[in-house]
Design a protein that fits this description.
Blueprint (H helix, E strand, L loop, with lengths): L27 H38 L13
Length: 78
């Protein structure tokens, strides 16, 4: 006994693909770059603020550790 052979046409695909339309150009790549730039600027700003704050605190501690009592910064009147 032989099994019947099932042949499909060479032009036929077993699962037809849906018609795909080309995607219109989108700003997805620019959005990612812009978001990264904004995040970098925010991190840079926070780092700058933190460095200034820690520098001021360090100067105050150095002054107090040296035994001085007048360590406050006096701003001149304008």
């Amino acid at each position: 006994m032989s099994k019947p052979e099932s042949r499909s046409e060479p032009d036929e695909e077993p699962h037809p693909r849906p018609n795909r339309q080309p995607k219109p150009p989108s700003g997805g790549d620019r959005r990612g770059a812009l978001a990264g730039l904004i995040i970098a600027v925010v991190i840079l700003g926070v780092g700058w603020w933190l460095a200034r704050d820690l520098t001021a605190a360090s100067k105050m501690q150095d002054c107090l550790m040296s035994g001085r009592s007048n360590c406050n910064v006096i701003e001149p009147a304008r």
